Amino acid sequence: MKLKSLLVSLGLLAGASFAQAEEPLKVGFVYVGPVGDLGWSYEHDMGRKGLEEYFGDKVKTTYVENVPEGADAERVITQLAKAGNDLIFTTSFGFMNPTVKVAKRFPKVKFEHATGYKLSKNLGTYVLRTYEGRYISGVTAGMMTKTNTIGYIGSFPIPEVIRDINAAYMGAKSVNPDVKMKIVWANTWYDPGKETDAANALMDQGVDVMLQHTDSPAPLIAAEKRGLRAIGQASDQSKFAPNAHIFSVRDNWTPYYIKEVQAVMDGTWKSQDFWGGFHDEMLTLASINPNLPKDVRAKIDATYTAIKSGEFKPFTGPIKDNKGNVAVPANHSLTDQELAQVNWYVEGITDEIPH
Amino acid sequence: MDSELIVQILFAAVKTGTPLLFIALGEVICEKSGVLNLGQEGMMLMGAVVGFLAAYGTGSAGLGVLSAMLMGCVMSLIFAVLVLHLGANQVATGLALTIFGTGLSAFIGSGVVGQTIQGFQPIAIPLLSDIPFIGKILFSHDILVYASFAMTFVLMFVVNKTRIGLTLKAVGENPHAANAIGIKVLRVRYLAVMFGGMMAGISGAYMSLVYTPMWVENMTAGRGWIALALVVFASWRVGRIMLGAYLFGLASIMHLVLQGLGWSISPNLLAMLPYVATVVVMVIISADKFKEKLLAPRSLGKTFDPRQMA
């Protein structure tokens, strides 16, 4: 890893000295997983490739994959900054503090940290509104379930995941008042074996449509084997389960990366806390299965349009939490800052949030 | 909890325990000969990727398993040459093998990430699978699960009842004495290590061909390490390894099932169960110093040089 980034940066230096006209803008990426995870890191790398395709010779990108969250991350980010990158994206929540530290030491370099909340003059953050996709997933699952029981495979009980569980449940409830949701925490972002076990445990208990907040396509494969349905996560996972797959909520980082690089080139880059969803095409519904009933498909399209246009916001009050307190008052939609702190289950979810 | 759910849970426990059973059976034989191979995870991953590549290329899951076994052997041979022939430190070499296997498997498998195959289909054994309760739990699996049953019983017999088993244990307990009575210590150890590699290969193939029929980086997610704990848990007894593997399987299933049933137990606590069980067993074993010596092969992890006297 160290060697790779060193070689790449050496290559960049060599490339730069031969460049005649203007020097390309150098952009660095730090990934938490392998680019081959077919989920989170894979999509970030697709974003990086999209950037190269769009700008051609005007950008040079470098990435370091499989970077553990912790002390190693700081070293990797420092290296990228020293290698002369003008803009560095750190793409996991756990890179937050290392990024803050390095950003302080390299005030001329611009940093962007995904899913975090700490900002400074040369450090911005960017977050996906995955709950928008999750709401549509809930609507679809609520319509498709025959047992009135849908399943949710969670990773870790952090606000992002809890927010999405709420969105999915509200979506399902809006079309199916009798729906129940079973939640299982796999305690991992990525373990195909464990995700399979979780999927089977849910299906054994009467779940016939599954949503997942973990990154491997294993739950889809498990659903395919049993002739049940599931919704893909982060990237287009349709090929793993041609019959079971309903659609995948795909992360699409390319437009954002292009926008930010352009801003740096134009000198208009500013540190900000950016939230992107359907409206910005940073989330898309990939490979909607043609085998869905017509009314379900129509409802998916209608909900998508309503959220994309901003006409409908899933977290609009009145919403009560499952302890009976008012979580969102009437006529109020949660602001981005409030969304970042959701730590309650919506009314109707019978489980407790694990601590 | 109705009886049907219990059957499904136990069925899943057997399935989840099977890769652990394969790899731990291999490791226990290896350790019985006195060699500690910490490269399990690396060999398993190589088995998984090569098995998948072969099955994907030829369309035959059987060939996939064979290739995985072969790959496991090759990986363990690298280890064997280093530690047996060249006298390298077993712990360090094993760790290196894991790191090597993890990286190499990711590299050679990158082309088939996202491909799917038709793995093994379940075969219900006639008559046996009709037994109520037991039939569904034990006899409606795929062929590899049955192979793991057979392997356990064969190994129990070989280790406990035959001359081969005696030779293996002699080499692991006191290689110098074994050498003195004319046993070729290094040859026995080579074979034991390669058997371990072969079993790790099958275990990997089970992951990529049956359990989740696909290949993704690091898909074994630490099962090679659990197998090492399992060998200690089973106190180096073949029969107990089977029991332990299914208990581990059950523990990891239960924490998911209970959540689905709405029990408000912290999933972290439940996920910890298999490891807590291992620690408890290790504490019990170590409490009795004399017993510990009876159980762990006495020359475990030590380099043997036939030219040197004990």
General description of the model:
The complex is a heterodimer of chains A (355) and B (310). Chain A is globular and about 60 Å long. Residues 10-20 of chain A have low confidence and may be disordered. By secondary structure, chain A is of the alpha/beta class. In chain A, helix 5 runs antiparallel to helix 10 and helix 7 runs parallel beside helix 8. Chain A has helices spanning 2-18, 40-55, 71-82, 96-105, 130-144, 159-175, 192-204, 218-226, 254-266, 294-308, 336-339; strands at 25-30, 59-64, 87-90, 110-114, 123-128, 149-154, 180-185, 209-212, 229-234, 245-251, 273-276, 283-286, 319-320, 326-328. Chain A folds into 2 domains: 2-128, Rossmann fold, CATH 3.40.50.2300; 130-250 and 285-339, Rossmann fold, CATH 3.40.50. Chain A is built from 11 helices and 14 strands. Chain A has a 6-stranded parallel sheet with strand order 2-1-3-4-5-11, with helices on both faces. Chain A has a 6-stranded mixed sheet with strand order 7-6-8-9-10-12, sandwiched between helices. Chain A has a two-stranded antiparallel sheet with strand order 13-14. The relative contact order of chain A is 0.13. Chain B is mainly alpha-helical and 310 residues long. Chain B has a single domain (3-295), classed as ABC transporter involved in vitamin B12 uptake, BtuC (Orthogonal Bundle), CATH 1.10.3470. Helix content of chain B is 72%, strand content 0%. Chain B contains 13 helices and no strands. Chain B has helices at residues 3-32, 40-58, 61-85, 90-109, 134-138, 143-161, 163-173, 175-180, 185-211, 223-233, 238-260, 267-287, 289-295. Chain B starts with a helix and ends in a 15-residue tail after the last helix. Chain B: This is Nucleoside ABC transporter membrane protein. Chain B: It is found in: Cell inner membrane. Chain B: InterPro entries: ABC_transp_permease. Chain B: The chain crosses the membrane at residues 6-30, 42-59, 65-88, 95-117, 137-159, 190-209, 221-238, 245-263, 269-287. Chain B: Keywords: Cell membrane, Membrane, Transmembrane, Transmembrane helix.
